[in-house]
Every structure is written in structure tokens, then in C-alpha cells.
Amino acid sequence: MTSTNIDFIEIAVSKFKNLNADDRLAVLALLFSKVSEEVPASAISCMPNDGTADLVAEIQKVSHPEQIVALRQLQNQSEGGETAISTDSYTSMDAECKLAFWYHLAQNLGGSVVGLPHDYIPSEPAAEVLDLFETASTEEIMSFMQQVLS
Q: Structure pTM?
């Protein structure tokens, strides 16, 4: 990460952490879709056999409304609670595995995993975060995601 703009990332992380869970999920979904074609799955060092595939499969088995509840809880990094999936395996993952989990989850958005509605319009706070990434490199986006998912 030789050219990563640390100040830019710190500002983005700070703004992201102030978003509600739904806005954070939307920002992650939109950023992953922005970089998905440029980042092959093999570039993520924690591969699906490290537990991420099992958790993605758990999420895919429940209804879309239950997926939203579970993803909110995962984004809030809380354990237990009333979800159709266990969050314990997620909370025990390191940052790289969490990045791999969200990456693999994003590969299924709009299919077996609930996606953003086609007419989705980001809230003003979410749009502010997304605007920071208008000219960001893939490297900067991945660095940001590693920080917010840790």
C-alpha cells in the first residue's frame, strides 16, 4: 500500500462508523460492487475454507428478512441475539477473514443474498461516505474495508 492516502481513509472510517447499520451495509454493498471485478477472490488471503463459506451458506439458507437482521447484527459485531444464524464464528474471525466473508457474500447479492433495491437512494450520511470514494483506487477501498471490518 505505497500510495494509500491515510488521511482520506481515516476520514472515511470515521464517517462510516457514525452510520446506522443499514447505511453501513449499503455502503459496503456498493463499494464491494465497485471493486468486485478488479479484485479476484484469490486475492483475499482468507479463503472460504477458513469458515467464511460456512457462514455465507448459513445466511443463504434463511429468508431475505432474516438475512437483513443477521447482517445488521454482524455489522454491529454483536454476539448472540435473535437471529437465524450464530454470530459467534463471525466475531471470532480476524480482519482478513471478515473481509473475505463480506467479499464472498457480496458475490451473491441480489441472488441468494438479499441485495439493495434497484431504486435504492443512499441516505445523506451514506452518500457523504460514498462520495469520498468517487476517485478512490481499489487499493484505497480495500484498505478502508479492512479497517471498518476489523
A: 0.84
pLDDT tens for residues 50-100? 678 888 889 999 999 999 988 988 887 654 455 667 778 888 888 888 888
Q: Which of 8, 2, 43, 37 is nearest to 144 (CA)?
A: 8
Cα separation of the two ends of the chain = 18
Residues in CB range of 132: below 8 A, 6 or more apart: 8, 11, 12, 15
- For the chain, the residue count is 150
CA–CA separation, 39 and 19 (whole Å): 26
C-alpha cell at 115: 441485495
Q: What is the dihedral of CA 113, 118, 123, 126, to 10 degrees?
A: 50
The grid cell for 6 is 491515510
Burial of 140 (0-12, 13-18, 19+ CB in 10 A): buried
